[in-house]
Amino acid sequence: MDEVNVRIDVNGVNREEKIEPRTLLVHFLRENLGLTGTHIGCDTSNCGACTVLLDGKAVKSCTVLAVQANGRKVLTIEGLGKGGLHPIQKAFLEKQALQCGYCTPGMIMSAYWLLSENPSPDEEQVKRGISGNLCRCTGYRSIIEAIMLASKEMSAGRTHGRDGR
Amino acid sequence: MMSAIDGFVTGQGRYVDDIKLPGMMRMYVVRSPYARARILKIEGGLNGHEVRGSMSSVGEGATEGSMELQEPVLSTSTVNYVGQPVAAVFGDNLYEAEDRAETVEVEYEPLKPVISIKEALESEPIHRSAKTNIMSDTWLGKDFEIDAPVVLEDRFVNRRVATNPIETRGIVADYSGDKLTVWISTQSVHSIKEGLCEAMGLQPQKVRVIQTDTGGAFGLKGALYPEYVIAAFAAMKFRKPVKWIETRREHLSASHPGRGAEGRMKLFADRQGKILGLKGEVIVDGGAYSGGMGEFAPGFIGYQLTGPYAIQNAHVRAMSVFTNKPPHGPYRGAGRPEAAFFIERMMDMLADELGIDAAELRLKNATTESFRSPLGMKIDASHDFIAKSIEELEYRKLSREKKAGFACFVLVPATQPGESARIVVKEGKIKVWLGGNTHGQRHDIFVKKLLNEELGVPEDKVELERGDTDMLEAGVGAWGSRSAMMAGTALIMAARKIKDQTEKEFGKYSPELLLANEYDEYHFEKFRESLNSFGANLATVSIDQYGNVNVDECRSYYDVGNALSRESVIGQITGGCLQGIGQALYEEVAYNEDGQLLTSSISDAGVQSALTLPRFVIRIAENRSRLPHGAKGLGESPTIGVPSAVARAIELASGRRIRETPVRPEMIV
C-alpha cells in the first residue's frame, strides 16, 4: 500500500513518519512512536482505554486515523505531568483508583479533559465524564473520588498561581 | 525508585502488547464462521495439517478428561463453535497479518448445531466419539424419602457471562533454537508452562514462561488456549518472535465464558420453615470441548448447594453437556455464585410460601455448630454470622423503608493444593516471587506488609517480582480467592526459614543483619483442607415503568479474616459488587439458534460504565483464620452474594418471581 507522510505534534514534539493511510492513530502512537501507555481494549470505541487528547479534546484513538491527526496536536499519558506526576496521576495513586492498571491511562486522559472543560465537576458530572471509559476492577468509586480530589488540588494550585500541569 | 503501580498512572506499565522484539511477527487467527461444520478442505496459513495435538487441561478446575473430547489446537475435520481457530497467518505488522487471512481457504459443510442445554440433552451427540452430549454426570449425597408438609420445586438459570478484563488475552513467543520463552498475560505462569509442555511434547527445562503486567483476568487467564500453542509452534517453526493479541470480538466468541448453568431444585420443609431435605439437579453448559471447568463445575456447584444452612438430607445430580459454543471456563466465583443463586432463590420462595421473613427463615436454618453437609461441604457455625449480618446490613430498618433483598453465602476458596513463594535477599533488597500471579489484586501490598511484620524490614526494601518459571521452581496460580491466604502463608513460611538461618549464623536476628547478607529461600506450603468463610449482601432497587432496574444500594458484610489491607479489601469488594450487579442485570453472551454470537461488543456484553453505580456500603468481620496471618478468602465474595440479593430485591419491588440472570426489563413488566 502507498505510504503517506504525516506530521503530528505528540506531547509537544513534532513527529514525522511515513505510514499506510489506513493506520489508526492508536497504532501510530504505539507501534511507530513506541508510546505504549495508550492501550487497546475493545476495537469498538466502547472501553476508552485508548483515550488521548487531539487538539485538546478527548478522542478514542482506535477510531481515529493517524492521517486525521496530521498537522494537529496529540497529548498522551506520557505527555502528562512533565517533570513529575500530574495532580490527577497523584490522586489516582492516593485513592487507589486502579487495580490492574490497564484502563488507567485512558481514564486519566478522560479525567484530564473533563477537568479542563469543567474544573469543579460534581459527582454526577464526573460519572458522565468518564462514562466512555470502562473499568472492570474497581467499581469506579475510587476513580470518582480520585478525580474529585484532583479537581480540588488543581483549583487550589490555580489559586496559588501554580500551573495545573 | 518508581514502583510498578506508579508506572500504571504514567503509561509505563509493561503489558504483553507492549513487548517489541527484533523481527517480531504478528499472528492473526482465522476462525470458524459456523457453530458446527465439517471441514471438507483446508489450505493455506499454518493449519491443523501441520499443527497437531490438542489442548491439555491446566489451571483452575483442571480435570483429567478424555483426550479425544478435548479441543484440538487446530482442527482439520470439524469445528464446533463460532470463532474456533482453524488457521493462523503472519505478517510484519497486524495489518499485513490480517490481510493474509485471505490466503487461507476453508471449505465447510455446515451441520445443525446444538445450542441450548435442552437441545443437548435431546439431540444426537455433536462428537462422533461420544454416545450422548453428556460431558460429565455425577451424583452427590444420598437419596432420601421424606413426607414433608411443604415441598417446593423450581428451575433457575444463570446465563453465560464473558470475563471481559479490559486487557484481553495475549502472548509473545520466542525460540532461541534451544529454549522457548513465552511472555504472557496470565494468572499462572506455571499452568501455562505445564500446558505448553504437555500439548507440544516439550521438556520442562526447554520452556520458560514470564508474566507481563496483566490487565485483569477474572478467571480468563489461567488456562491454556489454542492460540498460545499456535504462537509457540510458529515461533519455533519460523525462528522468529511471534505476538498474538486477542481482539474484543475474539474474546467474546472464542474465550471461555463462565456461568451458563441451570439448577433444578426441590426443597422439603416443615410449616415452621425448617428445611428437611434438598434434591437438586445442576446442568452446566460445558461448551464444545471437555477438559477443565466444564467437567469440574457441576460437581463443585452441587457440593455447595446447601449454602450456610444445616440441611440434613440432600441428593444432587451434577452434569454438564456439550453444546456448539466455546468451552466453559471460570469467571470470578466459578461455580460459587451459581450454587448461591439456586439455594438463595429457594430460601426466598420458601419464606414467601410460609409467610416468614426471609432473613428469619435463614436464621432458622443456620447452624450453631460446625456442620458437614450430606454433599460434602464443611461449614463453621453460621447462625451468629447471619444474625450479625442482619444487624450490620441494617436489614430490618431497610426492609421497613424499602424492599430489601438479603442473601447469605459460603465462600469456598481454592486452598488446595497450597502455594509457593521464594524470597531472595541480596544487596540490601528483598525480592519475592509468588506461585500465583497478581493481575490487579495488588499482591505487592500484602507481600510488603507480611515481610515487614515477619522480618522487620521496611516496606520499601521489598519488591514483588512478576511470575517467571525460571525464578520459581513450582507454583499454582491466582484464582479462587486464594492468594492472600495461600501465597501469603507460603511467604511467611519462607520468611521464617530465612530468619532461622540468620539466627543460626549470627546467634541473633535483626533486619540489618538480614539485609547485609544474602539469602535465597523457596517454600511450598502444602494445604489439603478447606477454609471456608461466610458473607451476606443486601440490595435495594428501583424499577421504572419500562422495567429498567436501578440498584440503589448494594451492601456487603463479609468475614475476611485478618484484613491485610483495608484499602485492598474495599477495592476488591466494590469492584466485585459491580460485577455481581452486572451478572444480575446486564451481562450475557447470547447466541441465536444457529449458534451465531449476538453479543458484538464489550458494552453489549453488559460491562457497566460509571453511570449505573449504586451506593456501596461495606462492612467487614475480621474473625482470624487458623493461618499464621489469619487471612481468609475475599476476591469472589461479592460475585457470589450480590446476584442473589439483587434478584430478591427485584422480586420484592416487581412482584415477579425471578428465576434467571440477567434479569431483563421484559421479564418484569
From TrEMBL, chain A:
Write down a Pfam family by its short name.
Fer2
Superkingdom of this protein's organism: Archaea
Does the entry feature the keyword Iron, yes or no? Answer: yes
Q: Name one GO molecular function term.
A: metal ion binding
Which residue intervals define the domain 2Fe-2S ferredoxin-type in the entry? 4-80
Q: Which InterPro entries match?
A: 2Fe-2S-bd (IPR002888), 2Fe-2S-bd_dom_sf (IPR036884), 2Fe-2S_ferredoxin-like_sf (IPR036010), 2Fe-2S_ferredoxin-type (IPR001041), Beta-grasp_dom_sf (IPR012675), Diverse_Oxidoreductases (IPR051452)
Q: Which UniProt keywords apply?
A: 2Fe-2S, Iron, Iron-sulfur, Metal-binding, Oxidoreductase
Name of the protein in question: (2Fe-2S)-binding protein
